Fold these 2 entries.
Entry 1:
Amino acid sequence: MKILVLQASPNLNGSTALLADEFARGAREKGHEVTRVDVDRLDIAPCTGCVACGYEGPCVQHDDMDGLREQILAADMLVLATPLYYYGMAAQLKCVIDRFCSVNASITRKRMKSALLTVAWNADSWTFEALEAHYNTLVRYLCWQDCGRVLGYGCGTTGMTKRSSHLQEAYQLGRSL
Ligand SMILES: Cc1cc2nc3c(=O)[nH]c(=O)nc-3n(C[C@H](O)[C@H](O)[C@H](O)COP(=O)(O)O)c2cc1C
């Protein structure tokens, strides 16, 4: 299947990217086509809330979402890969998700598969509670089929991440598809 990884960290060689690439390695070994998009490097403005699209239709804004929309609609699976920022996803990714507005019905109809890859400095048990709640709600609302998640507790630096078990978890998640 076609897998699109929406990688949100501005650190293109950071911990989120490490997880994304290990996931991709595993998925490619199983024959899947994986594309990683570093959304921080795209020019995607926040949704203005005008709802000229009527939640399905052309967006009045023309930026890199024009191309990303086509990639999303061509994909079978979306992987949300984000560092934890103030206990939620990075704004770069939230911006993209808010712009789903103009393809809301198309995304829902596709019954896409999904996964979550994330890293944080903290290792407290509650570190990812808010992010998981948000992701679970997106899965439910957008009729996604959740294929799994890697919660990178204690991945505050690439060194910490490389010493953790989470890279292996990401690889195994890719291999499990
Ligand atoms: C703006 C900002 C907010 C952050 N918020 C949190 C947080 O709420 N909890 C946490 O454990 N770590 C937090 N961190 C740490 C990052 O999640 C962590 O360093 C992560 O490894 C960064 O991933 P990257 O290398 O892919 O950029 C924050 C970092 C930044 C820059």
Entry 2:
Amino acid sequence: MLSEEEALILKTAERIGTIVGRDYWLRCAREKKRPDLLWGELLKTNLTSVGVKKISGTGLLEAVLVQEGLARAGLPLLQFLTTHLSRTVIARYGTEQQFEKFVRPTCEQGKKISFCITESEAGSNTWRIRTFAKRRNGGYILNGQKTFITGARESDYLLIVARTKRYEDVEDKKDGISLFVVETNTSGISFEALNIELYSPETQYTVYFDSVELGDENLIGQADKGVNYLFDCLNVERMLIAACSIGLGDHVLKRAVEYAKQRVVFDRPIGSYQGLQFRMARAKAHLEAARSLNYHAARLFDGGGKVGAEANMAKLVASEAGLEAFEIAMQTFGGNAYDLDTDIITFYPVIRLFITAPVTNELVLSYIGRHVLGLPKSY
Ligand SMILES: Cc1cc2nc3c(=O)[nH]c(=O)nc-3n(C[C@H](O)[C@H](O)[C@H](O)COP(=O)(O)OP(=O)(O)OC[C@H]3O[C@@H](n4cnc5c(N)ncnc54)[C@H](O)[C@@H]3O)c2cc1C
């Protein structure tokens, strides 16, 4: 299924994740520290440049493998995901200067990009975002706010989805969306941390834009046409999230299998009881199916194909397979699963997150219903 080189990327990411270690990850989360050691290792081994064709000669599939490998070691590094989906559109639709300024440093210096689309009032209805970039001579003035933005304050750059025409003023809701990339320390941008527990060191923020001055050099591609670029971002995000779900599912299932072989109750290892064994076997089969679909979707993207259907389906089945693996791991560990020190229940918030984010599975199902099956629109 994977070539030798591809398998090596997956193995290397998992090995780095294992060496850096889940203990380090949880310690950073507890002490609210950035996982710099992990980023340092990714940089040393050139994994930060994986997925950027012009620099490393690799594509989305390889980035998916990095994300999956890290998650297999128990390290769901969401800032790799936000960085990669953001730099994909800059590399595809931005200028040469934007590539040099914002993409190259993510590869060669481990710089990070946060992706800012969610607004509390609009919710899943992205068309209703209100963050607005008003045209002025040589640039724009940006006002508004975004919420739930992963790693925003710790990132070097922000990719911002804003309206350059108000929703009320356009006939087609897709018209008037623009994408901007800015340095995080630009004047007028501020952050407020949210109180979210994922047992991960990456914090979510509300980000405020207060008359932020942007130049034309901050705009990606054409003004008002950002929706064309946005679909690339969102599909890439779905496949990287799928990779994270699958990798974390692999991790908790492996731990459950190891425990089930050793733990003896009623004179037999609990893994021999089919109530547990069949559920573990089913979770394994579903993880493998999700993995195949996700690799297929990533290969299609790398080949320049349309991936809406495949990326959405991969996100759906991977998030469900990850959660299924977590559920059986919980049951296998019995009461011990509830002890935070066993480090099983600590996976729940992040594995469950992928049912809700970056897009809820209801919206994914709506997409499949409408665009794949041709059923009538529900909203
Ligand atoms: C930990 C975390 C990290 C995040 N990181 C980022 C980030 O880095 N950048 C970013 O931009 N965003 C981020 N998000 C935001 C995330 O993408 C949103 O939470 C997600 O898209 C859901 O939007 P919402 O929370 O507004 O839910 P809502 O839109 O309020 O939805 C609530 C419920 O209603 C259902 N629903 C809504 N409309 C329909 C419909 N038409 N049909 C059926 N059901 C419907 C939804 O499926 C959902 O179950 C993050 C969120 C979290 C929790």
